[in-house]
Amino acid sequence: MTNLADTAKLSRTAFADGPRLLADIGATHARLALETAPGAFGSVRVLRCDDFEGIVPLLQFYLADHGGITLHHAALAVANPINGDQVRMTNRAWEFSTDAVRRELGLHTLLIVNDFTALAMALPGLKPADLMQVGAGTAGANAVVGVLGPGTGLGVSAVIPTVDGFVTLGSEGGHMNFAPADEREFAILQYAWKEWSHVSNERLISGPGMEIIYRALALRNGIKTAPRTSPGIIAGALEERDPLCLEVLDCFSGMLGGAAANLAVTLGAFGGIFIGGGIVPRMGEWFATSSFRARFEAKGRFSDYLASIPTYVITTPHPALYGVATILSEHLRGRSGANTLMERIAHLQHELTPAEQRVAKLVLEQPRLVLNEPIAEIARFADVSQPTVIRFCRSLGFLGLADFKLKFASSLTGAIPVRHSQVRTGDSTHDLSAKVIDNTVSAILKFRDQLDVRSIDRAIELVSKANRVEFYAMGNSRVVALDGQHKFFRFRIPTSAYGDSHLFTLAAGLLKAGDVVIAISNSGRLPELLEAVDAARAAGADVIAITGSGTPLAKRATVCLAVDHAEDSTTFLSMISRMLQLLLIDIVSVGLSLDGSGKELGEADHRRMMISHLDS
């Protein structure tokens, strides 16, 4: 294991594409930092969530002090289950779209992960100096590790070892039913039942839960006292030695011990149980003498089983930031933007250890040698050990040297290292084939990352309610219009396609409210098309533009489905732009089919539509 402070010193080489924004956002506090190099954090701040109306104002406030930097990538750990683009926080009235936040901040990459998934990802880097062990037990090698922590809620996760690393669990185990262990805890449960029909562990083993325990025990003990916050209860116990506060902490620690034991036996966590969150570290050394460990081992026939499992309190500050940094780094390693494996190695070379960099240099300078030689010779030529060669391969996401060689050979065979380069007159058939395929794949992946989901939702809504749909397009875009007419007509929506400027100008004048025009243009500047769109809007129809985001056509439309791919269309047909336009038509078509919004479309029709999309 590596100490987190030591980790920050491992590399001071700045990221080639600038610093990365990291955040651990709970219901009460948000912890933010800029990662300027692998493991090097700066500008760490802790902000109160109550001071902000949402996640975007919070991030903008933090970034206001860093106006001179350019950010491309960010990752946020959020105290919430993460499932899809839309995030609605459980313990705070914040809701946001991941893609909308990404666009608002002008980022290329924005990852949202569960906060305890991020904390679990940080565990393999912890060292004894970062921890306080509570009780006995010894961690088993290559064993499952559990983590839980009370804060505003109760986070739960786990780390599961694999052949060449580990995986973390995105869990909501804090919402398991609370199980009382004695009469006192049953009285607390009865008190909580007055407010909630379902009482989870999180309701009681958390900051707000500690306050409930305080009120419940005051009532049970016949003590009249003013309510206290959880920090006030901890201070009352440890500083004032208040008997009620001490009983609350003892009861709380026992409940946490029971929850930790349940997690340990559920996971078989012989690697240990780690306690994070904002509550327990405030208790300091007192927690080691609390009822936590006795309750952890109080498992009847399985007491010996649990006695062998160590338990630790994480004492190092902001550990989830290290985990979320690792998650972002792994994500970017898998999607570096390089068109070939050679480019990917060059792009990620600065993130490798010095020994691994020597292997990377050999691969870049003598790729055929690396393909043809055994591991012993590769290690000798790179002046490293054989395990370093294996670590190099795994750092790039491969299982080992054999897996790396297989993918590397495929990358070298016929791959032309280009980024969105156009086919030229002198290109051979071999080169032009590779360019067309590489450019198209790269453009589609970039297009996927920059999709405006809200605009697509709006387009699907307009088409689903349309009385009729008309496609207007000229030149190379006509094939896209005909494809759209063919697909949308099967939804039993009256559909027409016009490719002649005189015809669609006349047709636009016959439209009325409830009709939809889908105007398709690479340039978005054709005067005839703009005139027809103006006529359609004047007649009360809505216009969906498939074009560049800043074009005159986009500005005239009700909604724009942007295609911002740059191509030299003066010499060659706009091949990739046409592919992206067709993709947008398919996305809207599939959205209509899944939404079931087509006019009187029966189950059999939906089935045929989906089969049609799969066939195409």
TrEMBL record:
Residue ranges annotated for the SIS domain, each copy included: 459-599
Localisation: Cytoplasm
Protein EC: 2.7.1.2
Alphabetical list of Gene3D superfamilies matching this protein: 3.30.420.40, 3.40.367.20, Glucose-6-phosphate isomerase like protein, domain 1, Winged helix-like DNA-binding domain superfamily/Winged helix DNA-binding domain
Keywords carried by this UniProt record: ATP-binding, Cytoplasm, DNA-binding, Glycolysis, Kinase, Multifunctional enzyme, Nucleotide-binding, Transcription, Transcription regulation, Transferase
Catalytic activity: D-glucose + ATP = D-glucose 6-phosphate + ADP + H(+)
Source organism, top-level taxon: Bacteria
Chief location: cytoplasm
Top enzyme category: transferase
GO MF entries: glucokinase activity
Record Pfam families: Glucokinase, HTH_6, SIS
HTH rpiR-type domain ranges (all copies): 339-415
Membership in a protein family: In the N-terminal section; belongs to the bacterial glucokinase family.
HAMAP family: Glucokinase
UniProt-listed NCBIfam families: glk (TIGR00749)
Protein name per its UniProtKB record: Glucokinase
Organism listed in the record: Massilia soli
